[in-house]
Task: structure prediction
Amino acid sequence: MSEETTTTETTTETQTSATPAPSIFSEGFNFAPDWADRLEGPDFDAHRATLAKFGGKSVHDLAKSYGELQKLIGQRQEGLVKLPGEGATPEEIAAYRKAVGVPESPDGYALQLPEGMDLREDVLSSLRGKAHELGITPAQLSALVQFQAETEQTELARWQAEHEDATKKAGEELRKEWGPRFETKLHDAKRVAETFGLRQDHPALQDPEVLRALALGASVISSDKLAGNETVTRTLSPENAAIDIQRNPSNSLHEAYRDSSHPNHQAAVAQVRRLHREAAAAGV
Result:
């Protein structure tokens, strides 16, 4: 290859590499419609869609838009509070707490308890103190207390449902086991419980094992030594209520029913007859 040919090729390559990239401007120094695509380099890739909006517009339009954007950013920063970082001074922390609404002292929490929720004053005082220590605002503390109240109500409702279900199953179990004597044995068990100081709604009386033991106790304890007030009597069916008047010495009508000379004898007899009629009408 001749020296002349080599020189010519080198000159051509130099001219080609020196060819300028297409201008981003059109006539009048307005941005070309596709000017964003003419920007070279990956740094512009994330912004090409936004910059393309200025296609056909002037540098003045771009500068004005940038100025308005900076103004908007400044407005949004007004009122913002700097979050204290590691090593923040007590003054910076105090300024932040004041800005977000943390009271100056625990007494600043005017806490309104949800309906049905009751806390002792010493518990409330501790709650306010911990909230102040943690930098919790009054609104946040109220939300936490409300959440706790709702959680307790949910748990209480769940417990009541489970309790009712257990009571129902216990009753079905004993009713199947005791058969026709269910009402009488249940009544006797409750009389024993009351004799020894257990109230009628005591949770123990929902346990089939406890009721079995109490009913067994009734069979070995003299009937006249067992309690027999109206609370227990009202739990009986009409038939068993009549039997209780006839056989239970602790029943307030038993003596009048058995003694024909008693001033309330006729009333007691009438009561027993009425209960028998109710049982018959119910098909018991």
